Amino acid sequence: MDGETGMIQPVYGMIQKRFLVNESFGEVCAFLPGTTRKSSIVATRNSLLLQIDTRSLENFLAITNLSKINVLHSAAVQVLHDSDFDFFDKLSDEGLRDLVRHHCEVQVFEKDHVVFEEGDVGEKFYAIIEGQVDVLIKGALVRKLGRKAYFGEISLVLQNTNRTATIRASTKTAMLTIDKKAFRKFFAKQQGLMAGVELRIAGAQCQLRSILCHPKGFEYFAMFLEQKDQSRGLHFWRTCCTFRLWATSIDPQPDLAAIQTRAQEIYDTYLRSSDASTIILGEDIRKDIEGDLKNQEADAGSYVAAESEMMKLMSKMHLDNFKATEWFQRLLQYINTGRSSSSSPEAAASVAAAAAAAAAA
């Protein structure tokens, strides 16, 4: 409430951090009674502190309808900041705070609670704020994970993936969680960053969208198609993406004339030119685009269906063949250059599977 305290490093007696007016400490212990303090707190001048016990804090949250993330925000941000997961390493401090504040939750698991079982379909990523979990494969304990460790990242980037291990709380444990929907919503405007991590985690199981949203992946895939003289569809897809993002960015007061002009230029270049036959689109999609142009109703969504259709078509026609080329091996090598070791059991299993799949391709 008033005054100043210092957080003292246990071994060397050095002040690690100073807490001033309106700052707090000890939040984790409030949710995990019995947790050993990691540092000593010493008043560096006369101070007045407000102390809240576990029951009072829980009652306060229930009355105010606040979530645990409001209280553990600082601890959660620090856990992500200290982790070696690529997404968080490249985010600014403000970006991390925004991610935690608006897209994450805190869950507390009692000792022996099974977080998820081997074979379950994964939908969440977990990072341990405090506590410890057991990692079991086929019922056998293979390792323990503690504070700052994370797991479940594969479920964020691959569809319908099964958990590769069972996770069980070996102590009362607080975890930061992010589900797939919230994760993708936050990184929607950082496609390059998301694509890089998706490629690193998924490896040979990656989807074409991850390849094309990564600058180097797009470059290599374009070279692959140019060798076959089949790159026009790829450039049409990219033009559709660029148009959608551009038209969306000028809302809420869009320049309708400029949007109409650019939409017409795309149609003239790819769908009415002498090379239009190289762009394979369903008749309904073409008619919808032509209707928007004729009625002067072109908007950010005019080419969305075409964008989606081209992605499906390229995936069906070219993805497997691309993965069998040197271009794809170069991409994986580029993506994994300088990769730091991961604390995640899922990541280790994924890397091994990706390497085996790539070698067999």
UniProtKB/TrEMBL annotation:
Q: Domain RGS, which positions?
A: 207-332
Instruction: Tell me the SMART domains matching this sequence.
Output: cNMP, RGS
Tell me which Pfam families the record gives: cNMP_binding, RGS
Q: Which InterPro entries match?
A: cAMP-dep_PK_reg_su-like, cNMP-bd_CS, cNMP-bd_dom, cNMP-bd_dom_sf, RGS, RGS_sf, RGS_subdomain_2, RmlC-like_jellyroll
CDD domains recorded: CAP_ED (cd00038), RGS (cd07440)
- Tell me which Gene3D superfamilies the record gives: Jelly Rolls (2.60.120.10), Regulator of G-protein Signalling 4, domain 2 (1.10.167.10)
An annotated Gene Ontology molecular function: cAMP binding
Q: Where is the Cyclic nucleotide-binding domain?
A: 22-61, 87-187
Superkingdom field: Eukaryota
What protein name applies here?
Cyclic nucleotide-binding domain-containing protein
- Can you name the source organism? Lotharella globosa
Query: What taxonomic ancestry is recorded?
Result: Eukaryota, Sar, Rhizaria, Cercozoa, Chlorarachniophyceae
